[in-house]
Design brief:
The complex is a heterodimer.
Chain A (H helix, E strand, L loop, with lengths): L4 H18 L2 E2 H8 L3 H12 L13 E2 L1 H5 L2 E2 L1 E3 L11 H16 L1 H4 L2 H18 L6 E4 L6 H13 L1 E8 L5 E14 L2 E8 L4 E6 L3 E10 L11 H6 L8 E6 L4 H6 L2 E6 L5 E6 L3 H11 L3 E5 L1 H20 L10
Antiparallel strand pairs in A: 1-3, 2-4, 6-7, 6-10, 7-8, 8-9, 11-13, 11-14, 12-13
Helix pairs in contact in A: 1-3, 2-3, 5-7, 11-12
Chain B lengths: L8 H14 L4 E2 H7 L9 H17 L4 E4 L9 E4 L1 H4 L8 H10 L6 H16 L13 E4 L7 H10 L2 E7 L6 E14 L2 E8 L4 E6 L3 E8 L12 H5 L7 E7 L5 H4 L3 E3 L12 E7 L2 H9 L5 E5 L1 H15 L20
Antiparallel strand pairs in B: 1-3, 2-3, 5-6, 5-9, 6-7, 7-8, 10-12, 10-13, 11-12
Helix pairs in contact in B: 10-11
Classes of the chains: A alpha+beta, B alpha+beta.
């Protein structure tokens, strides 16, 4: 796909301003700095070379030293007044400052003081440079998790060490595992540890708020070929594959988040604002939890044994409440 | 289709910027058309006008301050130049570790629009001479925010210009879709959702809108500077979705609800009246009552809420609905659970 003209313009202006301050720079070093190929930088230099002020006589043009370029070094000899780096546009400042603010407040950063200090100083410098336009967007990553556990995971990641974790799964069963941490991902409201699990012999995703304990081991973490870009939310929530059974839920409008946030097979809007969502479920405990939590907005469930299972669990719970009554709670209110 | 222009758009824009930075006073449109490389390609005056207007918009959106200059006594044509004082980025001077942090922050957005915006910001910072990025300060950490969707662009534009927006919105409690006229104040992301905080002109009151419930396009309408943006407390406006910190007392079956235990303080069960029968007594902090009730109801009989009463009622409300959950047939031909693949 062709690069957008505005993206290229920003780099063209950026190259001139940078080279004016930096002196001669190797082509491959420029390419790395601006995140493009050497070939692209060469094309950019060619474009700059024929650009300048109206008239476009030799002295009007941006100029480079041709001999240096033959040796792979870009040496700017005339900048035509374009020596200053361009300020950030409102949209750019917003995207940058909102991201840093969100990162600064996120639990994995807050868990390590020296880390929070680096993010905080970067944020302060950029806020000073961009002014207050950036407050138009306000992003907060919650992502709960025990700060001590997060600090242990962070330091294992930084030092490349193995971790021993105690983890409780969605079915409320705890286990102890040795894992090689790959990354700590804070996505929206949750933090996840993506790791190679030696007990399972594969890549696993652990919710940080279900990590009961984490201890850094002396052994180094091994390198594993795992895909870091798997849809973490989907794999943790439903863990459904193409062969898993399908459940159909009819939900009232307030439960719309289910359609938005759970990996659904299909979603169908109904005329009255309610909707029908089809889910592929390999983990019945997960579905039971989903239905218990959202029961007031559930209009119908199929297949029938799912509804029966949820109703039985709810009756047992109501009985438990009856056994431990609290003042002011009239039965059936 | 017209033949490809002899000067690529990026180079035309570059020549326009260089010309407007270097001009002694200002350039008129005619001077731009006749003098700046790339504009002679326009086949007609109308095509030139369109091209020049679009280019000015592009440059302004990149933060390049193009100003208009009133014509002098002899001319009636407006001139253009770049405000050199407002052009430059103030010195930022990031350390390698700080630049590493900025590079990581660039990965936060899942949105294509926001990613474009932030990668451009990165290019400008690199041009300002920041050193090599060092990633070790934030090794292994990946923050990410769900995509905001198509509404983000027009909403941000409207906030920056303080213009009113109009969109169709699906109400959460009724499911009804209605047009809303809003003075936009802030775009906020919390707990996986994107929100617009602003003044609802139809309701004549401040309101919060969830971006995912906006159906169709957001139109930016009316004049600029149409309202003032107050100093809003976004968390207070989002209210229950975020909540204030409180503590609950729970009676929990031994060994169960371990994720709740992980953030709980164990209380002395014998000190509590009535004493929970064979259960552990836990004190747990929480913020959002409804989110906590969702979590606790899911444990069914393993967790009984003793305090506070409003949390207890919320959990009981869920459990009673679940106990009555009727297995009404869902009324679709393939509701029996057979495999149907999406897409």
């Amino acid at each position: 796909m062709a690069e957008r003209a505005d993206d290229r313009l920003v780099r063209l202006l950026g190259l001139v301003a940078y080279l004016d301050g930096a002196g001669p720079v190797r082509l491959d070093e420029l390419a790395r700095r601006f995140g493009v190929t050497s070939r692209q930088v060469r094309e950019d230099v060619d474009a700059l070379w024929v650009s300048g002020t109206p008239g476009y006589m030799p002295d009007d043009l941006i100029d480079f030293d041709a001999f240096s370029l033959d040796e792979g070094v870009v040496h700017l000899t005339r900048a035509r007044g374009m020596t200053r780096p361009l300020r950030l546009g409102t949209r750019e400042a917003v995207a940058l400052v909102a991201a840093l603010r969100a990162m600064h407040a996120s639990p994995p950063v807050q868990a390590a003081p020296e880390r929070a200090a680096v993010v905080g100083s970067a944020l302060a410098k950029l806020t000073a440079a961009t002014g207050d336009a950036a407050s138009a967007v306000d992003v907060r990553l919650a992502g709960d998790g025990d700060p001590e556990v997060l600090a242990a995971v962070s330091s294992a990641l930084a030092d490349g060490r193995r971790l021993r974790i105690r983890y409780v799964n969605a079915g409320d069963v705890a286990s102890e595992r040795d894992v090689d941490p790959v990354r700590l991902l804070t996505q929206d409201e949750r933090t996840y540890l993506v790791a190679w699990c030696h007990r399972a012999g594969g890549r696993r995703t652990f919710r940080a708020d279900r990590l009961l304990a984490a201890r850094v081991l002396d052994e180094p973490a091994e390198a594993h070929d795992v895909d870091p870009d798997v849809d973490v939310t989907a794999s943790v929530l439903a863990d459904g594959g193409p062969g898993a059974p399908v459940a159909t839920l009819m939900l009232a409008s307030p439960a719309r988040w289910v359609a938005e946030e759970v990996p659904a097979e299909s979603v169908r809007d109904l005329p009255d604002g309610s909707f029908e969502v089809r889910l592929r479920v390999t983990n019945p405990a997960w579905l039971r939890r989903l239905l218990l939590s959202n029961a007031p907005d559930v209009r119908a469930v199929a297949p029938p044994d799912v509804a029966a299972d949820v109703a039985a669990a709810a009756r047992a719970a109501l009985a438990a409440y009856g056994d431990a009554p609290a003042p002011g709670d009239a039965p059936g209110a | 289709m017209s033949p490809p222009p002899s000067v690529p758009p990026a180079e035309r824009l570059l020549n326009l910027v260089i010309a407007l930075v270097n001009t002694s006073a200002a350039m008129t449109k005619q001077q731009v058309r006749a003098g700046v490389a790339g504009y002679a390609d326009a086949p007609s005056t109308e095509a030139f006008e369109r091209m020049f207007e679009r280019d000015k918009d592009t440059l302004r959106s990149l933060g390049i301050p193009i100003v208009t200059v009133d014509p002098g006594g002899h001319s009636d044509e407006v001139g253009y130049r770049i405000d050199n004082d407002a052009y430059a980025l103030p010195p930022v001077d990031l350390t390698p570790a700080e630049l590493g942090v900025v590079a990581l922050a660039a990965q936060l957005w899942s949105d294509k629009t926001l990613r474009t915006d932030i990668s451009r910001a990165m290019t400008k910072l690199r041009a300002a001479g920041a050193g090599e990025a060092a990633a070790d300060a934030v090794a292994g950490i990946t923050p990410r925010v769900r995509a905001a969707g198509d509404a983000y662009g027009p909403l941000l534009e409207a906030i920056s210009a303080r213009r009113v927006v109009v969109f169709r919105y699906r109400a959460a409690n009724t499911g009804q879709v209605m047009a809303r006229h809003v003075e936009p104040w802030r775009i906020a992301a919390r707990g996986g959702g994107w929100y617009l905080v602003g003044f609802d002109r139809d309701r004549q009151a401040p309101r919060v809108f969830r971006l995912s419930r906006i159906t169709g396009r957001v139109r930016v309408t009316g004049p600029g500077s149409a309202f003032e943006i107050p100093d809003v407390d976004v968390d207070a406006m989002l209210g229950e979705r975020v909540g204030v910190g409180r503590t609950a007392v729970l009676a929990v079956v031994p060994e169960r609800a371990q994720a709740v235990r992980a953030r709980a303080k164990v209380l002395d069960a014998s000190a509590h009246d009535p004493r929970p029968d064979g259960r552990d007594l836990l004190e747990v902090p929480f913020r959002s009552r409804s989110a906590f009730a969702d979590e606790l109801a899911a444990y069914a009989d393993a967790v009984v809420v003793l305090e506070p009463q409003d949390l207890r009622r919320e959990v009981l409300h869920r459990l009673r609905a679940a106990a009555a959950l009727a297995s009404v047939p869902v009324g679709t031909p393939d509701a029996s659970g057979e495999a149907v693949h999406r897409g």
